[in-house]
Amino acid sequence: VNTTSSRDIFDVIGLRRSVRSFKPDGIPHRQIEKLVEAAQWAPTPGNRQSWHFIAIVEPAALEGAKALSPGLPKSVSGLLVVCSDHRRWGDAAEEFARVTAIEEASMATENILLAASALALGACVVASFSSEGVAELLQLPPNIEPILLVGLGVPDEEPLAPTRRTMREILSWNTYKEECSAD
Ligand SMILES: Cc1cc2nc3c(=O)[nH]c(=O)nc-3n(C[C@H](O)[C@H](O)[C@H](O)COP(=O)(O)O)c2cc1C
Fold it and tell me: Which residues make Cβ contacts (< 8 Å) with residue 74, sequence separation at least 6?
């Protein structure tokens, strides 16, 4: 992602938005590879790197995926399915492996979202989808579990930043202090 047009990391973090409206243009394969390259450098427990990424760019498969995920913006022109490969879980206890698989996928996904923003691609992460449906659509073997979807495309909107909680609400020093509003 280290291109000359890359934005400063704090700009990339602050300017990343969930984009939900896309132009019809396709995304070059090389750009999708750049996103997965960013994901590759995310941390994983013991460096196990249990992820597997499936890039969906063919219209029929995209339509199939949209039908299985109501939260996925309709105009996406690409999709990255962030999966965990159970064969790479090693001998970790089942519950630990499962929770950390989600953590691992989430960290890889944030890298994807930031890299997309740096490359001026639009992206939106979606967690609600039919896992069984996606497994069937993509003919996943039983060891490959889809965890998150990332819709991708050329942005057709510049969403305003949703508000964030204040620093006072989310940060306390040394011990927990309830200065914050709970809503
Ligand atoms: C786990 C997870 C699931 C999400 N699912 C959806 C979704 O189904 N549809 C959607 O449009 N956005 C989804 N989002 C995006 C959030 O709505 C968005 O991140 C939040 O409103 C803040 O906006 P921002 O990303 O532009 O800062 C999801 C985000 C996360 C982290």
Answer: 66
